[in-house]
Amino acid sequence: MNRLIVVSNRVQPPMEEGSANQGGLAVALSAALRESNGIWFGWSGDEAGNFTGHIDFQRHHGVTTATIDLEAQDIDEYYNGYANRTLWPLFHDRIDLAEFQREFEGGYERANRRFADTLSPLLQPDDLIWIHDYHLIPLGRDLRRMGVGNRLGFFLHIPWPPTRLLLSLPHHRELVESLFFYDVVGFQTQDWLDSFLHYVQTKLNAEVREDGTILHEGRVLRAIACPIGIDRAEFQEMVESEEALVACRAMEKSADGRAMILGVDRLDYSKGLQDRFLGYQRFLATHPEMLERVFLLQIAPPSRENVGSYQEIRAQLDALSGHINGEFASVEWVPIRYVNKGYPREKLAGIYRAARVGLVTPLRDGMNLVAKEYIAAQNPEDPGVLILSSFAGAARQLTQALLVNPHSADDVADAIARALTMPKEERIARWRASMDVVEREDVTWWLRRFVGALAATDEASIPVETTG
Ligand code: ADQ
User: Fold this and answer.
1) Which candidate, 279, 265, 227, places its Cα nearest to that of 397?
2) Ligand 1 pocket by C-beta < 6 Å: which residues?
3) What global pTM score does this model have?
4) CA of 421: how far to CAs of 145, 353, 384, 424, 426, in Å?
5) Tens of pLDDT along 385-425?
6) How far is ligand 1, taken at its centre, from the CA of residue 86, in Å?
7) In 3D, which of 148, 116, 130 has the Cα closest to residue 38?
8) Catalytic residue positions?
9) Could you give the 3-state DSSP secondary structure of residue 393?
10) What is the 21 CA–ligand 1 centroid distance (Å)?
11) Across-strand partners of 298?
12) Which of 39, 141, 166, 297 could form a disulfide with 178 if both were Cys (CB 3.0 to 4.6 A apart)?
């Protein structure tokens, strides 16, 4: 296997056991890198007074990392700005929250060039370079302009927006055209891939050829649907760990015979937490017989706290959970336990297992690994039920979950009621079908599929641009 160079905005190598809150990307890529013995390159998360291009190399649990610091202005305009205030909301269907500022765009271009300048001297001719996510879309183009002829792949972890939405992004054409400097571009689902194909066919007049490759102005790109999975083996170990067992027992004890409905999400407007709370409120209002017999545990560690819309959502959720608790609580029972912190993954695995219902209702989500982790954590003989938004990428694979429209409080309420009363045989049958997918299409499968497509690229067709 060629050496793999993974590039992503943040580098989060495997952490010490028991550390809290590793994101989906980090969890998946650590597994991928362990297998490929590669380097993980990206931003350290730290601020430098002036950008120096200094690279900090480290080794963590079998993974070599190489990180750079960015200047305050870069962080503001590239990370908090273009990535998280322009692209993230737009790609998650929240044009109302998307901010279009020229400084953001300039910062995004500048930071991507800084990545290219510092990364290119590390590259060896046979390296496969795999760039991740919306922060780094133009990086492939910048590397090509420096003469990098390696095979280059890009994977988008978030949805690709419908063309009519993307058109509202200034310079959308340049952004999309920069993807044509890669050999392979991967999307989480066929839906997101179809949206991409729609744009390139209708706006760029690109040709989608019979072999699935796309031809645009002499460049050939292979675009694939390649859904990310969880590290099944690692997760299985975690579920069986002492910490998980202790956490599971502690949760069951604290539930005191009540059925636990569980939500686990980064605190983000795309995760649909407000609508979820409203759906649960509707459930309580329409099923008075269930009062005091269930509770919702929502674990939601804050994220991106420097972005205003994230502060707002936090305040709104605090108010809404307080309101629902005020409306339904008794002296002995609180309907929503709302916790704003991350948990060590072993503990989280135990909490998943103790939950009768996994409530995963994002309004839009590239994939959603929590849904897969919930399935993987269940007791095969007495599994809980996954309620899943049809707008999560995971819904394309986990078709035997109870799929809901997360915007509809009635739909969510009905699904909760159905999940709580579902006969054991049906629970087992639905869980088994979901678990088959989680087991078959795990992170190793994802890695092989993407890297396999990249490695299969015909080297002679690699376009190299040395000017501009
Ligand atoms: P995220 O938006 O971060 O990822 P998700 O796929 O659900 O969303 O991954 C979250 C990860 O963080 C899970 O592994 C989960 O266990 C962990 N996590 C969440 N809350 C936690 C807590 N309180 N304590 C500990 N761990 C917690 C982006 C995209 C997704 C896509 C992934 C991977 O938005 O759509 O699935 O990348 O491609």
Assistant:
1) 227
2) 20-21, 23-25, 27-28, 157-158, 228, 264, 266, 299, 301, 342-343, 348, 365-370, 373
3) 0.94
4) 60, 18, 11, 9, 10
5) 999 999 999 999 999 999 999 999 999 999 999 999 999 99
6) 20
7) 130
8) 157, 365
9) helix
10) 9
11) 263, 338
12) 141
- Residue tagged 């015909």 (tokens): 458
Q: Which domains does the chain have, with CATH numbers?
A: 4-229+443-458 (3.40.50.2000), 236-440 (3.40.50.2000)
Cα(372) to centroid(ligand 1), Å: 10
Question: How big is the chain, counted in residues?
Answer: 468
Q: Is the pLDDT of residue 18 over 50?
A: no
Residue of 92, 231, 243, 264 with the most ligand 1 atoms within 8 Å of its CB, for mutation: 264
Helices 409-421 and 273-286: crossing angle in degrees, nearest 10, is 60
Computed over every residue of the chain, the mean pLDDT equals 93
CA–centroid distance, 265 to ligand 1, in Å, is 7
User: What atom of ligand 1 comes closest to residue 393's alpha carbon?
Assistant: 35
In this structure, the strands spanning 207-208 and 213-216 are antiparallel
* Residue located nearest, by CA, to atom 1 of ligand 1: 24
